[in-house]
């Protein structure tokens, strides 16, 4: 059944594996309803204003999909007819507008996403030729409309991609280290710690600073989608049903959320990042400046072995190298052993949250994790580990 224009509609948030529950909580806080976790996704309902709101304010998803239609689909013929009846294509896809199709899932006869996407494209082009005698062009980069097909069981769902590009690209990070942590994953990891800005936050192996930058932005209410919105890079800004006044209202609300202090008016606790690579430290400083949070972050060229913690105990967050991406240039077990020694000797009363993709190296810290949260980092099976340092 196709969506009635102006009504509340069903949507999908595509999220990093392991962050489904955190993303569901975030969407609920943004007034979405019927929120349900899926694998690597969260289903929810919202209206037009809410769809704009999540694009501007949600930190964890990669993208948002708005459902156009859900229909029975057991073969190619049903897919062809279902796509053609899924929406008012006079409204959504006149021949002057370009488009791209993506696909996930499978059904008998369509088990490869490339051919499923091609079947959707052919159905739409056939419909256009029948009604207009001409067809849209296919654009892989920056098309006017991005459509997403999902096949599952005996059904198909056709979505509009409101994001257009991955939302992890906040726009502040032209400079990155060798194995950058995606911004939305970093935000999700910080959310899982429960850190709210009231305690010191330290990353002793900070790399390009993503964990700390996302933490500061979250504590200060800096909406992650503002730069993309101002540059007109959201796909939904080019949709024929785009409501400019409603968008302007949501943009104003998102902008007004930004603060220079915590939500209760108190100053943010100190945030420190350390790395022993001068070029990487400079990258972190540039990224923090581009994100507008550099006044609250202090990055220093230093080895974590020399770290002297602030007097007030707080949180240590860390995404150390674990060999899969960065190679084995260092003795990783020695690095983790030294990290564990430093923590036990100097950081009593602190909490450590560490992203591990190598259990053997992590074991060298000689610390016992009290929580282990499964996380996928770029396809690498990891654990977000929580320790109490005593």
Strand content: 15-25%
Q: What is the annotated CATH architecture of the largest domain?
A: 3-Layer(aba) Sandwich
Radius of gyration: 23 Å
- Largest beta sheet, briefly? 7 strands, mixed
CATH third-tier fold name of the largest domain? Rossmann fold
Count of structural domains: 2
Q: Report the count of strand segments.
A: 14
User: What share of the residues lie within helices?
Assistant: 25-40%
Order of helices and strands: EHEEHEHHEHEEHEHHHEHEEHEHEE
| Large-scale geometry | elongated
Number of helices: 12
Architecture overview:
The chain is α/β, with parallel strands linked by helices and 390 residues long. It has two domains: 9-161, 2-Layer Sandwich (VC0802-like); 183-221 and 260-388, 3-Layer(aba) Sandwich (Rossmann fold). 32% of the residues lie in helices and 23% in strands. It is built from twelve helices and 14 strands. The chain has helices spanning 20-29, 48-57, 76-84, 89-92, 113-132, 183-193, 210-219, 226-230, 244-256, 278-291, 332-346, 359-363; strands at 9-14, 33-38, 41-46, 63-72, 99-105, 145-152, 155-161, 201-203, 271-275, 297-301, 315-318, 351-356, 371-377, 380-388. Helix 5 (113-132) links the parallel strand 5 and strand 6. Helix 6 (183-193) crosses helix 7 (210-219). The radius of gyration is 23 Å and the shape is elongated.
């Amino acid at each position: 059944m196709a969506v009635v224009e102006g009504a509340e509609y069903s949507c999908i948030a595509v999220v990093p594996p392991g962050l489904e529950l955190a993303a569901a909580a975030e969407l609920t806080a943004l007034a979405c309803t019927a929120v349900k976790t899926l694998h690597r996704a969260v289903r929810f309902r919202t209206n037009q204003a809410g769809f704009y709101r999540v694009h501007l304010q949600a930190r964890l998803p990669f993208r948002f999909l708005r459902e156009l239609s859900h229909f029975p689909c057991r073969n190619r013929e049903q897919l062809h007819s279902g796509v053609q009846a899924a929406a008012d294509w006079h409204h959504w896809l006149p021949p002057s507008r370009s488009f791209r199709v993506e696909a996930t899932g499978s059904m008998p006869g369509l088990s490869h996403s490339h051919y499923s996407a091609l079947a959707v494209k052919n159905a739409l082009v056939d419909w256009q030729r029948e009604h207009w005698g001409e067809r849209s062009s296919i654009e892989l980069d920056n098309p006017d409309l991005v459509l997403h097909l999902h096949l599952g069981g005996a059904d198909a769902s056709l979505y509009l991609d409101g994001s257009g590009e991955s939302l992890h690209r906040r726009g502040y990070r032209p400079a990155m280290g060798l194995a950058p942590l995606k911004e939305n994953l970093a935000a999700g990891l910080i959310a899982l710690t429960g850190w709210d800005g009231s305690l010191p936050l330290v990353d002793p192996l900070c790399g390009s600073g993503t964990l700390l930058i996302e933490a500061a932005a979250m504590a200060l209410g800096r909406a992650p989608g503002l730069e993309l919105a101002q540059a007109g890079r959201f796909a939904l800004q080019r949709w024929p049903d785009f409501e400019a006044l409603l968008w302007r209202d949501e943009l104003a609300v998102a902008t007004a959320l930004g603060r220079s202090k915590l939500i209760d008016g108190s100053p943010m606790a100190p945030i420190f990042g350390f790395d022993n690579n001068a070029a990487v430290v400079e990258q972190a400083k540039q990224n923090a400046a581009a994100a507008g949070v550099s006044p609250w972050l202090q990055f220093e060229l230093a080895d974590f072995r020399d770290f002297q913690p602030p007097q007030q105990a707080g949180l240590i967050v860390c995404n150390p190298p674990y060999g899969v991406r960065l190679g084995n240039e260092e003795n990783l077990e020695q690095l983790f052993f030294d990290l564990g020694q430093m923590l036990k000797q100097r950081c009593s009363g602190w909490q450590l949250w560490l992203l591990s993709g190598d259990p053997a190296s992590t074991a060298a810290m000689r610390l016992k994790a009290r929580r282990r949260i499964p996380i996928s980092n770029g396809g690498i099976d990891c654990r977000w580990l929580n320790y109490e340092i005593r």
